[in-house]
Amino acid sequence: MKTRIPSSTSRLRFGHARADITPPVGIYHRLWGAARHDRSTGVHRPLFGDVMVLGPVDGPRAPLIRAQLDLCGLVRGQHEDLALALSEAGGVSPDRIVLTYSHTHSSGWFVPDRFEFPGGELILPYLKDLGAKLQDTCRRAVASVQEAYITYASGRCDMAANRDGYDEEFGRHVCGFNPDAPADETVLVGRITAPSGDLLGTLVHYACHPTTLAWENTLISPDYVGAMREEVERATGAPCLFLQGACGDLGPKEGFVGDVAVADRNGRQLAHAALSALASLGPPGTDFAYQGPVISGATLGTWARVPFTDERLRQTSRFSGGAFSVDLPLKPRPDRASLRADLEQWEARQREADAAGDAVATRDYGARAERARRWLARLTDLPDGPTCPVQFSVHRFGDAVWVTSGGEPYNALQVELRRRFPALTLLFSPLASGLQVAYLLPADRYGKGLYQEEPSPLAPGCLEALTEAIAEKIEEIAR
Predict the structure, then answer these.
(1) pLDDT digits (tens), the chain, 479 positions
(2) Which of 19, 187, 244, 267 qualifies as a cystine partner to 155, CB 3.0-4.6 A?
(3) What is the number of alpha carbons within 13 Å of residue 228 lying toward its C-beta?
């Protein structure tokens, strides 16, 4: 039998700081096509921006700066502006910046084509203020850097579910809880400690769309992430940072509601799963090793936590990786003129239905108009050629690999990478670039009428190509 169980660990230099990035009440908020409001009317829980600095324990390699924002996402130019602001504040090149999002659908919707809507006049001032806040937060994170251990553990939470449902009566797929399909229940946690054992913070990585709250909600909210974070911080007394996983086909079992109590309940469920996993960890810098037999009523095999050997210290201190790109094929794009005609048509029908007092038709026509409007915006950021470059990053920190990519890949990507690299703890986060890429579906899911295919500009095979590109870089870095 094995006589030593390594504790998955990243030994590095770590810094963290947080800012409250809650937008002003009244900012443009309508992300859902079925919503009838434009402006937010209040705040459920604050939105946070967390900035981490991750550097090698030894050697001259530049640190990685990663910011995690409680926003749905931003378009390419907005995303790049924030990354540049972080680069300047942190004193590193832009390729050492990773910027990801929790993807809450209740943060507000800040893309340029909403500037002229009610509440849109608040977007540009908010983004300017956000950039300044992140720069200050980055400087504070850099100033707090110290040696640390991130020790990882995994648990399970069934709050998330497959959301590629099929409505037999409707005769087509719907984006909602599908009880007949399995879902990835993995919760990965990281306990961040100083060598002394003092707790510096925790990481919670979980794949689930923050779509508990939907069109009926008018409040700014981090969705389930807020209550999860609050519960973990109450129990540990240290900051909790949430990292979204590959969730293109995953969402809460109980979602698409207006009741914030449901979002809080979902968050607490995830928090308890995370706390359970954290409780399984031993002291930092230790592995679990067999100590030999003890003669008692039975001959007992004893195990104990033992300090890292010099070799384990070297293994857990490895620090490498970088930013990369892969060209993915585009499918034929809709024509701008046709999209504008569709937009005008659906808006006219919405006005007629509204005047007639037909609330359901007004909602449905508004949603159709929203789809056309979003495709028009998406075309602005897409290249003219047959392929689209999709950025991704792969960083190895000791026993763990942190991966990010643009777009919203299906969870199959995360599952497949973990299958191929079982010896590594893998944390994957989507939405690490602008919103133009949208969803990455498995090739066999195209042509079935799934929602995710409609807004995606990418052709079949995109998810598989991205998976291979990431796997190739992990293989290189692991060697």
Answers:
(1) 999 999 999 999 999 999 999 999 999 999 998 899 999 999 999 999 999 999 999 878 899 999 999 999 999 999 999 999 999 999 999 999 999 999 999 999 999 999 999 999 999 999 999 999 999 999 999 999 999 999 999 999 999 999 999 999 989 999 999 999 999 999 999 999 999 999 999 999 999 999 999 999 999 999 999 999 999 999 999 999 999 999 999 999 999 999 999 999 999 999 999 999 999 999 999 999 999 999 999 999 999 999 999 999 999 999 999 999 999 999 998 888 888 888 889 888 888 888 888 888 888 888 888 888 888 888 887 888 899 999 999 999 999 999 999 999 999 999 999 999 999 999 999 999 988 889 999 999 999 999 999 889 999 999 999 999 999 999 999 88
(2) 187
(3) 32
315 found inside a domain: no
Pick the last residue of a domain from 213, 248, 282: 282
Number of structural domains in the chain: 2
Q: Which domain holds residue 372?
A: 336-381
Identify the burial level of 26 via C-beta atoms within 10 angstroms of its C-beta, where 0-12 means exposed, 13-18 middle and 19 or more buried: middle
0.85 exceeded by pTM? yes
Both 82 and 155 in one domain: the answer is yes
Specify whether 38 is located in the same domain as 178.
yes
**Ranges assigned E (strand) in 113-158:** 146-156
Strands (E), 44-142: 48-55, 64-69, 97-101
Q: Would you list the DSSP string of 382-430?
A: S-SSSEEEEEEEEEEETTEEEEEESSEE-THHHHHHHHH-TTSEEEEE-
Token pair 């857990």 in the structure block, residue: 316
